[in-house]
Amino acid sequence: MAPPALAACTRSSPYIGRSSELDRLVEAVRHPPGTVLIEGEAGIGKSRLIRELLRHSAMADQVVLRGVCPPMREPLAYGPVIEALRHGRERLNAKERLKGTEWGPRVGPPRAFLPELSAVLSGQRRISLEPVEPDQSAEPDASSPPAQATRADAPLRPAQAAEADALALPAQVAPAVQRHELFPAFRALLAAHGPAVLVIEDVHWADSETWDLLLYLCADPPPEMVLVLTCRRPCGALPAHYSALNVSTRMRLAPLDAPQVGRLAAHVLGVPQVPQDFAATLHLHTGGIPLWVEEAMRDVPAPESATLQPALLADLPAPPGLHDAMRELLASAGRAASAAIRAAAILGEPATEQDLGAVAGLPARRTGAAVTRAVEIGALYEVGPGRYGMRHFLAAQAVRETTPGPQRWRLHARAAELLATKSDRKPDRLAHHYRQSGNLAAWVQHTLAAVEQKLATADATAAIALLERVLADTELPDSAHDLFVVRLSRAVLNGITPAETIDRLRAALHHDRLSPAARGEVHLNLGRWLINQAGQLEAGQSEIEAAVTELREQPELAARGMAALALPSLGTGPVETHLHWLRQAEAALGDSVDAETIAAVLTNRLSVRMQTADPKVWEDIAELAQILPSKPQLARAYFNLADAATWNGHYGRAYVFLMEGKRLTSENEGEFLSMLGDGTSLRLDAASGQWAHLSRAADRVIALAGDMEFLAADAWLATGWLSLWQGARAAAAHHFDTALRTAPHNVPVVASARAGRTAMLLAQGRTAAACHEADLAIECLRDKGNWVWAAELVPVGIRVLARCGRMADAVELLQQFEDGLTGKDAPLATAAVDAGHGALALARGSASTAAAHYVQAALHYRQLPHPAEAARAHESAAHCFSHTGEHEAAANQFTAALALYAMLGTIHDVARCQRHVRSYEGAGKRGRKGYGQELSPREREVAMLAGQGMTNHQIAEMLVLSPRTVEQHVARALRKLNLNSRTAFADQLPEPRHAGRTLR
Question: Does the pTM of the predicted model rise above 0.70?
Answer without folding.
Answer: no
